[in-house]
Structures are given as C-alpha cells and as structure tokens.
Known about the structure:
The complex is a heterodimer. Chain A is α+β, with helices and mostly antiparallel strands. Chain A has helices at residues 22-33, 49-60, and strands at residues 11-14, 39-44, 63-69, 74-79. Chain A contains two helices and four strands. Chain B has two domains: 4-10 and 257-395, Aspartate Aminotransferase, domain 1; 16-253, 3-Layer(aba) Sandwich (Aspartate Aminotransferase, domain 2), CATH 3.40.640. Chain B is built from 13 helices and twelve strands. In chain B, the strands form three sheets. Chain B has a seven-stranded mixed beta sheet, with helices on both faces. A three-stranded antiparallel beta sheet of chain B has the order 9-10-12. In chain B, helix 1 runs antiparallel to helix 8. Classes of the chains: A alpha+beta, B alpha/beta.
Amino acid sequence: MKFVENVKPDVTSDIVYMMCPMHLLKLEEQMKELEQGQILEIMTDYDGALEDIPAWCRKTGNEFLGMEDSADFYKFYIKKSAR
Amino acid sequence: MKKIYLDHVATNPLLPEVLDAMLPYLKEDYGNPLSVYEYGMKAKTAIEDAREKVAGLVNAKPAEIIFTASGAEANNFALRGIALAKQNEGKHVLVSRMEHHSVLNSARFLEKSGFAVTYLPVDKKGFVDPETVKKSITKETVLISVTHASSEVGTIEPIKEIVKVAKEKNIVVHTDAVATTGNIPVDVKALGVDLLSMAAHQFYGPKGAAALYVRQGLRIVPLIYGGIQESGRRAGTENVPAIVGMGKAAEIARAALKTRMDYLMPMRDRIIDAMSGVERVYLTGDREQRLPGHASFCVEYIEGEAMLLLLAAKGIFSASGSACSSKALKASPVLLSMGISSSLAQGSIVFSLGMDNTAEDVDYLVNEFPAVIKRLREISPYAQGWGDREEGGEQCTVKE
C-alpha cells in the first residue's frame, strides 16, 4: 500500500459507517462529477476498501495516489485520469 | 351510539388521498427499488419523490432524510447511532425525563453499554430548562436528546434555546418530533437540531413509515445492517407503499398546517376552559406552549383507567398517561417527573383532537365528562382523598 500525507483533495466523500458496496458506488458516482486531474478523497472505515479502491483504479484507469490512516478511518486519494 | 375518537396522539386515520397514492404500490407497482429494470425504477422514483416531500415538510435536503419503520426506530437509531459514532470523543449523553420510552430505553441501553446518562429534570409545566442543560454538560457529553413536544402533556420544549447551549460546546442535538411534525411548524434549520425523528401516522399518513433527519455531514452508525438501501445507513427492502403514503401526507400537511392549527386550537381551548370549571381537575402541561389539539388533565381521586372505561361506554375514546403505558396501570413517569404526586398522576387523562373531530364532538365531551367524574367520585373509595393528596394538590400546576 502506498501512503501519502497532506494531499489536497478537490472533493471529499465521507462514507464512514456506510457498508459495502457503498465505497465503490460513491467512488463511481463522485468520479463522474470530477474534472480531469482533480483529486477525490474518500473517507471510510471499511477494511475491504484497502483492496477494492486500488483495484477499481487499475480497472478504470484512474490514478490511485495513496492512502492516509487516521485513528478511526482511512482516507483514500484518487486522481481522475480516465476519460 | 355516537363514536368520538379523541386519541390522535396514539394514531390518526389515513387521509383518502394518501390511501389512493399508496394503492398502486400495494397492487401492480410492486417492484423492489433496488432492481435495475422498469419495476424497480418506478419504485425507486416513488421513494425519492416521497423523500423530497418529507424533506420539504421539515425544511431539510432530501439526502438528509432516512426512512425507518417507526418513530421508535428513528429514536433508537439517533441515540445508539450517534453515541456509537462519537464514543471516542466522549461517553456521556443527556436526555430529558419527558422522553418517550423509545428514547428513555435507548438511553438505558447505552448506560448498560458503558455510557453515562444524565436524565434532565423538567419543571411543573413540563419544560426542560436550557440552563439545566448547560449545567449538565460535561467534557464527555456527545449527545443531547430532548423531545420537541411530549404527547402526554403536550408541552412544546424550547429546542432552539437548548441547541444554542449545545452548540457552544459543539454537542450533537436530537429531538423527537413525532408528536409535532405535520401538526405545528417544524423546521430543522430554524431549530438548529442535528437529528429529528418523525412518523407518518401522526400526520394522517400510514403506520410503518417514519423518518430520521440526519444533518448532512453528520456520521451515524447504522442500526440495521444489510444492503445499500438509504445510502447504506438503513438496510432492508423499503416499505414502498407506506413511504409513498408518508410523502403524500407530508405534502398535504405542509399545505394545510395553518388550517389545521386554526381548526384545532379553539376546540382544544374550549375543552380546557370547560374543565377548568370542574372541581379538582388540573390541566397538565403549559397552557400556551402546547400541541394544537392536545388537552390533558389530572383528575383527583379517580383512576385514569376508570375514566377511560366510562368514557368509552359513552363512545368517547381517549387515553390515560402516555398512550402505550396506560395498560401498565402505574403512575406515568412523565407526570411524576413534573412533580405531580403518584396518586394524582393515577387520574391522568389525555384528549387529543384531530381533523375528523367537530365542535359537536367537543360539546358532547364537555357535557359528558363532568358527569363521569361525578359518578366515579361517588363510588371511589378514595373520595375522601388519597393518603397524600395534599402533596399532590399543591404540586399540580394549574391553579394559579
């Protein structure tokens, strides 16, 4: 896993306490709204996201910048690169 | 025999327009909102339309409305969901003593789970004092829950002032607005609350549909896990017909709110005025800050159950204590919390009016009720007074 710090996101999606597969549904929904090059931050406490979000990025051709681990949840950063 | 329903805080009849709106979803439009084909999409659209209408009734955004199956579920969800979400910040919760069982028993569950709970006292008219709230807040406090109005005594609480105190310390506020939503103006932005419970059958919608308003950005731990319904915050296939009915009832309530209040308040005042002339009958709750169709009393030397039975024999259907505690035949905790003695609290009776009532119904009640009281006092072994009646007489609030 790639860890990052101080990434400045353009949009934040807080889905802490929301269950699988909300992390992927929200991710897809939010990415549609973003412009090329913008960064999405997803906050979630769902462990499955550790595998699913990087995998989703590989599959869709978006750039997975990395994650930050805070006490209660994870923050994932994704840059929109797919057209 | 004449039948007069005066128990609208227990539940309300369904409006015909609401039933009509629901019927297709009980018949041909039976799709599951999660299905991706036509049937599902129709159901999904219907739910989102209802969500918009319910949001409109309380001035919220549609995304801030989570449908539940009952007001009790909404209250459980609010208390447990926020306490669990915030337990790393603190483990102290404030609730008033006036709350419905679904709030009080959720608070007791939290106590058993390691939270500290402070039960806020109320004054003689049933008001929670914002100053008391302020003094009860500790560094550990994460949630305050105070009802918007108690269905038992009708007093409307100063939620705005309580929110003001809470916001100084950044504490989340929930209000149980089941008795008020659709009956008086309820505006989540004006009140400033973070969470608010409401139930459709309290404003002429169906049973089985209710909602919790959760302010955008506030995290809440789900009560029910499963699928992605309600954004993953409340799993389970939606009760589509009931939710559609709730939406329709909300739309009608929003438009008819003032008409309803103007219709109910004079009838309520007529009952209160008439009963103030009967000896040793005391109004419970506040005279002004009360629900529009709500008249509640304590009648000395008589048991509430006995009054209910004799009134029912005359075709008048009412309630004693809180609607669901009347079977327990014990003094209502709400009345006790107001400082009313347990003996006087035995004689509690609640008349709650609705749009199906008429001025003639009220005439009939104010004629028959004093006769019922007289008859019961004649046969009551307590007619000479309860053991501690003096205490009760002094503490009851109305004779000013």
